[in-house]
Amino acid sequence: MKKLSILISAFLLFGFTTKDNTISKKERNSAIDLLKDTEKGVIKAVAGLSEAQLNFKPAPDKWSVEDCVKHIATTEQGLWQMTNGAIQQAANPEKRADIKATDEEVIKMIESREHKVKTAPSMEPQNTPYKSLAEALESFKTDRAKLIEYVKTTDADLRNHVVTLPPGSFDSYQMILFIAAHSNRHTQQIEEVKADPNFPKN
What we know:
By secondary structure, the protein is mainly α. Helices cover 59% and strands 4% of the residues. The protein has helices spanning 2-17, 25-46, 51-55, 65-88, 103-111, 133-153, 172-194, and strands at residues 162-165, 168-171. It has a two-stranded antiparallel ribbon. A hairpin with a 2-residue loop joins β1 (162-165) and β2.
């Protein structure tokens, strides 16, 4: 009986003192909503466009609508591979001191079209593996569905796995927001292309 009492006491002690490092329900829902909304934004922006409209470029050095989607799809994969790689490594909470932006600031910074950013060569549209808008869009939708499911179910300590990129350091939860915001950044670019006065009527 004495041993049983000791075991119960130990269980209660560790049960109440173990820290839960998973993201909160609010954080989880916020990320899921952002991922779903920005996915819908991409799909809506390209729905019903003709080949001429998909391939129109406002200038020789500008991207077409199809180029934007190819970039979104390949960057979706690249950013998640980087983020997942960090999650699989040992937590690095000491790196949290390098994080300068709040979650809201990360979204705002990545979505903003005010500052142009030169993408890596591997993520330029002509260097992606996609041969058509359909291929790129299917890849994007598949990867986004997987990411949404991951956010719904993960118990990983996303806040204490920090990723360092040229724009700054972000925890893995912020990287998921980054991915969603990135697709919206280029949805805005698609709308800019469509608003060009020379954009084909059909």
